[in-house]
Amino acid sequence: MNYINAFWVGGLICVIGQILIDKTKITSARILVLFVVLGCILGGLNIYDKIIDYAGAGACVPLPGFGNLLANGVKEEIDSEGAIGILTGGLKSASAGISAAVIFSLINALIFDPKEK
Amino acid sequence: MKNNFIDKKKYQDTVEKMSPKTNIFLNCFNAFWSGGLICVIGEFITNYFLNLGYEIDVARTFCSVILIFFGVILTGFGVYDKIGKFAGAGSIVPITGFANSVAAPALEFKKEGYIFGVGAKMFLISGPVIVYSTLASVIVGIFYYFSL
Lengths: 117, 148
What we know:
The complex is a heterodimer of chains A (117) and B (148).
Chain A: H1 2-23, H2 28-44, H3 48-55, H4 57-60, H5 63-81, H6 85-111
Chain B: H1 2-18, H2 24-51, H3 56-76, H4 79-87, H5 89-92, H6 95-108, H7 114-121, H8 123-147
Helix pairs in contact in B: 2-3, 3-6, 6-7, 6-8
């Protein structure tokens, strides 16, 4: 059941992105920004966690899940550290994803050469 | 002059005829199942780490990191581009798409060197994502702090 919910919710979030790409002039780079920011706002409003409770990775893996992670990080950090958490919480919770993407991409660029298009 | 106008019109008609029609229904279908499939793989990885005894948050972080790893490596092999042509948003919206947005420009600008090529261009697309998500998180934080 978990897998089915993850499949259709995750798929649906991608369809929203596809419709935005096909029907508007929004480029894929802007979709990335839009979805992460949207996830962060929904996380701030305590809405996105409910979607994650239902869909698991179907909500965590798409980009709004990344934004939600930042929102949750900020809240937890404010709870434990006070006002400074406003600045530290977001990127702290995103650090694993950002570090992984940077380090893997760097090694990747060392090993591979650009493919002919 | 009149001839010129007709040619232009003809040209535009031809362009319209020849340019591929975007089949939005088919695009959405492909985005749906390929994006859904990536999430199912994510669910599988998360469950695997849960079964190893990790907390749910840690399991989800492992899941993100592993998906990012595959997003990057598939970009290196030139496979992710091909998936992207087929899957559209199904390959952009999952976290693997974020990984691709870091890895692809890093690789493409390798010839400009490791500082201003790989190092700088790596953030061509992901930079704005980090900037505006940081902004959003700080705004969320301010509201949360003053609502306590």
